[in-house]
Every structure is written in C-alpha cells, then in structure tokens.
Amino acid sequence: MHSLVKRFGPGLGSLILLGVAVWLVGMVLAPNLMMLDFSLRPNLTPAQIGGPDDHYTLVNFSALFADPVHRAIFFKTIWASALVMLTTLVVTYPMAFWLAKVATHRAVAWVTVALIIPFWINEVLRTLAWYILLAFNGPLNVVLVGLGILDTPMRWFGDAGVLAGMVYAYILFMLFPVYNSISTLDSAQIEAARNLGASTIQIHRRIVIPHAKAGIATGCVFTFMLAAGSYVAPALLGAPGSRWFTEVIYNWFFEGGNWNRGAAYALVLLTLCMVVVMATLRIFKVNLADVAK
C-alpha cells in the first residue's frame, strides 16, 4: 500500500486502492456472503420468509451427500477436472518448451498468433465447432471411416468429447504460464547438461521442470478451476451419463427453482476446488506470490 501511494502519489494511489477495495467487496465478498446466506436457509415460499421456519440449517449441504447420484457427479467432476488439467499439461509442455528454447522468434510469433486467433471467438461458438466436429456424421467420423479406421461412425459425445473440448478451451491458460517460466531458463544449463551426457528425460526432469514449477503450478491452478466450473462444454459435448456438477447447480437454480440448494452445491464445489488448488501449490512447493507473478 505504501509503495503504491509513493509511486502514484496520495491522490491517485488512494483512488486505485479505493477501486480495488470496491471491486473486492462488491464483486467477490458480497456475492459469496449472499450465496452463503442462501445456502444456510431452507427453500421457502415468499409467505414463509421471516416466519418460524426461516432459520439457518445445514440441510442443503447434507442433501448433497445424502443423494448418491449428485454425490457421484460431484466427485466425478473433481477427478475429471484433474484429468483435464493433466491432459492439458501433457499436451502443452512440449509445445511450451519448443516455443521457449527451440523455435525462432519468427516461428514463435506465427504460432502464438495461430493459437490466439481462435480465442477471439466466443467460447460457446468454439464449443459448437467441436459439437459439429464430433457429430455422428461430422468431419471426424467421415475421415476415420474413409481411411478404414472405423467401419461405422462412432458417437464421440460423452466423457471423451467433454475432455477434448475442455483441453482445447483452456489450452492457453496452461501454455503461456509454462512457456513464460521455461523462457527464463538459461539455455547454457541445458547445453551443459547435454555435454555432460544427460539424456533428454534427465534434462527435463532435473533442470527444466524444477525451473518451470511455478509456471506449471499456475497453469494447473487455472486449468483445474476453469474445468471444474465449466458449464458450456459438458452441456454441449456431454451425454446423459457424463453430467458435470455445474449442470446440477444450474438445474437447481434455473429449473428446480431451489436457489438455496443450488447455492449450497456451488459453495461445496468452490470449497473443494480451493482445497485442491492449495494441495497443488503444496505439491509443487509454490506459494501464491509465485502464482501471482
């Protein structure tokens, strides 16, 4: 705070601090407190609000774990989000290393532009593109059947379709943090390790990955949170047997009309996501200050 006031002066510095405080209170703290209040109250008719039945209770939270279907969807969303996170890391790590240490500046510029341009389009439209691609008579099945790999078209919608759509949707949130971390690594360390006889796997395991752990942790945090809170990809690319927990929350709010139950479900998801994120930072031995960088 002192450095901000010293840098921008007391007037502008105080204004910036006030703007940040208003944003945190109005956009972060207040909505979550309202959500907490909703989640601790029973679903009542307008006439019952303020009456003897209007009191704090944990029934909305216990209902989640008492319902075997919703409980299974909840835990499936958590491990599936972790799978999306790991798949995205596996896909982007080689690309990030190539961009940071192998590719020329011209190649980096062209690849970066090629990756960013599709993201100028709304996420819903990009997901619809995957819907068309994975359709029963879509381009993917046409190519696979034409090459003789498949005898008949397959239905790709379900867990596989959601995984593919999410990896594509959140690839940049993993790629850029990992790329930025690897780009700060001195290439001389890699050359020295190679001259001393280290294999490619040893170079990445002992030099590149430890150096890029802050970027990897940042990408994992972003990707996991986005995947766990995603609604568009599961709704468009999923199947009845591959429902996401966000779809259950949506149904409570907008179809079931039970905002109290939906708020409780949303808070449980938020809490567990925060636990997973903190565990990820602990595993990588990275603190929040490193992620903020």
TrEMBL record:
The record gives the membrane topology as: Multi-pass membrane protein
Task: List all membrane-crossing ranges.
Answer: 12-34, 78-97, 128-150, 156-179, 214-237, 262-284
Query: Which PROSITE patterns does the record associate with it?
Result: ABC_TM1
Does rRNA-binding show up as a keyword for this record? no
Q: Which Pfam families match?
A: BPD_transp_1
Q: Which domain of life is it from?
A: Bacteria
For this chain, the family text in UniProt reads: Belongs to the binding-protein-dependent transport system permease family. CysTW subfamily.
Q: What is this protein called?
A: ABC transporter permease
